Each structure stands twice: as C-alpha cells, then as structure tokens.
Amino acid sequence: MDKSQCEVPRKAWELPFLAEAEEVAGLRRVMALHLRLWGLSELTDAAQLCVTELVTNVLTHIGPGTPTTLVVSMAGTRLRIEVHDPDARALPTLLAATDRDESGRGMAIIDAITDRWGVVLRADSKVTWCELPTDLITPTGHTGGGRVTRAETFLALYRGATHPTVDPTGPLGLAVAEEATIDLIADLLHWLHAHGRDPDEALDRAQMHFEAEGTSRA
Q1: Residue 79 bridge partners (DSSP)
Q2: How far apart are CA 217 and CA 60, in angstroms?
Q3: H or E element: which one contains 194?
Q4: Which of 8, 9, 71, 106 could cross-link 82 (Cys pair, CB 3.0–4.6 Å)?
Q5: d(CA 120, CA 98)
Q6: Is 80 strand, coil or helix?
Q7: Hey, which residues does 73 pair with through a beta bridge?
Q8: What would you measure as the largest C-alpha separation in the chain, in angstroms?
Q9: Distance of alpha carbon 195 from alpha carbon 175, whole angstroms
Q10: Do residues 45 and 35 lie in contact, with contact meaning Cβ atoms separated by under 8 Å?
Q11: Residue-wise pLDDT tens digits, 192-209
Q12: pTM of the model
C-alpha cells in the first residue's frame, strides 16, 4: 500500500479580500471548511476566533476597505494563520485590557489561545501571524492518535479496492471513506458471527470504548 494514501496533504492557501466587517463571517466559513477537509475540525472555534480578531485589528487600526490577505498553512504540526496588510506602521499591541474594556482585547485573546504569535515587517506591508497547536505527530498525519492512524490504514485498502482514482482528501473522497468505514464494520461483524461471537455485544463494547476515550480527550 502506498504510504501517501494514509497521509493528509495540507497545502497552504490564501484568500485576498477587502477588510470589511461583513467579510468576517465569510472568512470564518472558509476557515471551517478547510479545517474540515484537513481533518482538523477540532481547531475550528479557535481558528475562527483568530481570524476574527486579526481582521478586526486591521479594521480598527488601518480602516475599512484595506486590501488584506488571509493565508493559512502548516508550520510543522502547528496551524499557522496569517493576515497580510499594506501598513507597516500600525503594529498590533498586546494590551492589559479588562473585561469591561470595549476594545484593546484582540491581541490579548490571540496571546491566550495560541501557542505563539508575531509580526513580520516588510518594506511596505506587514504580516500578523499566530499558530495553534494540534495533536499531530507529522504535518500530513491524522489527529486522534494511534487508533485513527490504524483505521486509516485499513480504510485505504477498502477505498483503493472500490474507488482507486478518487482523491481521498476531497469531498468525494471523504464520502467514499465513510462508505468504506461502513463496509469495514459490516465485514468485521460478519467475521465475528462466522467465528461464533456476538456482533451486537462487540458493537456495544466498541461504543463504550469510543465514548470513554472521546470523553478523556475532551
């Protein structure tokens, strides 16, 4: 089996836009979509909050209509979010704002929820960036630990047998993987039945393991 079939390619992407308050909701939706395709949905809330605060920072300190670009990539096993804008003078500042302050809390929020953040100054622009931690072992690996990695190995065999030309990371590939998961579970239940074991009991025990481990990760 090709090792690449068990990997999740996470190619950097960028989205130019004009900074407007109405754009933020759309940017949040795009972020959620890409994280789902990357298998990093658990980062959605934090990543959307980062986008909101970084874009709001542009709106507040530079102004509406500013040509801005959102860039998302992997920095090793961290999720990196960048906002590029054309003003190298208006630098984000980490302020000691209180809960009663109406402004000034944006970078404090970024500082609290990310592993690290910073600013890259260029001749006529700047990049404000932040990085969120993941539980990935490699940039193209899977979240969820060893169980997910082992499951992906088996699913790659089922996927390859039924839909060898489908991109496993695209929307169709995810649908095919879901059907392959159902087929794999059904085949395992047939195997248990053929060997005199109770498939219903096995399902109940598997569900108990899943719920217990899911709770411990939360």
Answers
A1: 74, 132
A2: 37
A3: helix 171-194
A4: 71
A5: 27
A6: strand
A7: 80
A8: 73
A9: 31
A10: no
A11: 888 888 989 988 988 888
A12: 0.66
